[in-house]
Amino acid sequence: METTWEKQLRTAGLRVTRPRLSVLGVLAEHPHVDADTIATAARTVHPSISPQAVYGVLKALIGSGIARRIEPAGGPALYELRVGDNHHHHLVCRECGLIADVDCVVGQAPCLQPSDAAGFAVDEAEVVFWGLCAGCQVARRTHVHGTNSAIEEGVTA
Amino acid sequence: METTWEKQLRTAGLRVTRPRLSVLGVLAEHPHVDADTIATAARTVHPSISPQAVYGVLKALIGSGIARRIEPAGGPALYELRVGDNHHHHLVCRECGLIADVDCVVGQAPCLQPSDAAGFAVDEAEVVFWGLCAGCQVARRTHVHGTNSAIEEGVTA
DNA sequence: CCTGCTTTTTTGACTCAGTCAAATCAAGAG
DNA sequence: CTCTTGATTTGACTGAGTCAAAAAAGCAGG
Fold this sequence. Notes:
Two copies of one chain form a homodimer.
Chain A: H1 2-11, H2 18-29, E1 33-34, H3 35-43, H4 51-63, E2 67-70, E3 78-81, E4 88-93, E5 99-103, E6 121-132, H5 134-143, H6 149-152
Parallel strand pairs in A: 4-6
Antiparallel strand pairs in A: 1-3, 2-3, 4-5
Helix pairs in contact in A: 2-3, 3-4
The first copy, chain A, binds a DNA duplex (30 and 30 nucleotides) through residues 14-20, 34-36, 48-53, 55-57, 60, 76-77.
């Protein structure tokens, strides 16, 4: 497994270093993490890693397409490994920040091409679905006695 | 025109104040502005307005649905007036940050509902189209002599 | 196995966007 | 006009991330 990462790094023309391997290890275990969590987790494997090194590693990984950066509104940036070419989108929980992956909707849904592109040369469509994760729906029904009609009426796009 | 804003504020249960009216004025003139630009522009009308007042006003406007906040990756948050109910999405230029509105794709495109919602109760789908605006396409062709094949091959969603 | 060049990492200062809390001030109800 | 409540100002502070110089480590050639 570790050999795979080494190969990936070398293929990308990057040197194989301890900080890089430990960051890759963290990314492989946690699907969507912020830089600070990566630093903390990586420190269990490589105690001397500095926060800036994490940013540096992530920048290198992103630059060579090994990792991807997503920036949900209202929170720090999150990083994920890009395994293969499976481009996907994200479901974000408004309450707890939990993120789930959703398969790319293009294919069944070529409608993502904007109808009027206003002269733009569009090269990527980014979709974020906002809502409540299963756990937070339960928590809300338990503690609050209001309705959650707004949530369940459907999607506003 | 100003009376309209006063009415909107009062309807929302908000007091009509000079900072609020000047921020509304700026928002009406500029479709997508960041907080700092709003502060600078508002100062031409109301010189003593503080940056924090701008944040306060925006928070109030957003809380009552008069304005909307968007947070494109890699830049400060932008604010726009929400006229009527026309929910729309955004085209963002990778080069210059220019933003254009795109009509909501739901209606012709009910496919925005994720196929597998992983137990989430989804209440909003947010779409951002990334690319190059017309101006930056011209600028790039003029100054760089490489290809821009990646850009024009189509949308990756 | 060394040597030396180059890329990474470390260290530490710094920026930018935004928040928080206490004190002052103004809107507008009565 | 006065009083109460809500809004703004002032000023300190946080969190996320960048930048640059110095130290350290990777790895290619001998």
